[in-house]
Design a protein that fits this description.
Non-ribosomal Peptide Synthetase Peptidyl Carrier Protein, Chain A; 4 helices; single chain; globular; two-stranded antiparallel sheet; mainly alpha
């Protein structure tokens, strides 16, 4: 499946899940801030991704509930530390870190979940699935 095909599938499912106009669903659009997604929508989006692309998404794999143990030095007063930023980058390896502003605060993290992030995630999952099928 090509990246363009994945993008079309993501746009289709977001249009249905969120009831937004196709024109609003651009790669840089934040799911929550720009497209109005709420917590329950994230669950729906995950299920739609699984059905649309025939992939399995583990719990907390796409939208992790908690990346940080509040006692591990990941954040201080709501600000991410270097430890926290590294944990975030590891947990969200599908985020295009070069093209998004690095969050300074924990409250900035939802802005990382864009249409492009979903496309990257699905492309990585499909690639992983194809690679493991080749090995078997």
């Amino acid at each position: 499946m090509t990246r363009d095909e994945i993008e079309v599938g993501i746009v289709d499912l977001l249009e249905k899940a969120l009831g937004v106009e196709r024109e609003e669903i651009v790669p840089t659009a934040s799911l929550q801030h720009d497209l109005g997604a709420e917590s329950i929508d994230m669950i729906d989006i995950t299920f739609r991704i699984e059905r649309t692309f025939n992939i399995e998404v583990d719990r907390d794999e796409l939208f992790p509930d908690s990346v940080f143990d509040h006692n591990d030095g990941s954040m201080i007063d709501g600000r991410l530390t270097l430890v926290g930023l590294q944990k975030l980058k590891t947990a969200l390896s599908f985020v295009d870190w070069i093209n998004v502003p690095t969050p300074s605060y924990v409250d900035d993290i939802p802005r990382l979940f864009t249409v492009s992030t979903l496309i990257n995630f699905v492309a990585a999952k499909i690639n992983q699935k194809q690679s493991s099928a080749t090995i078997v």
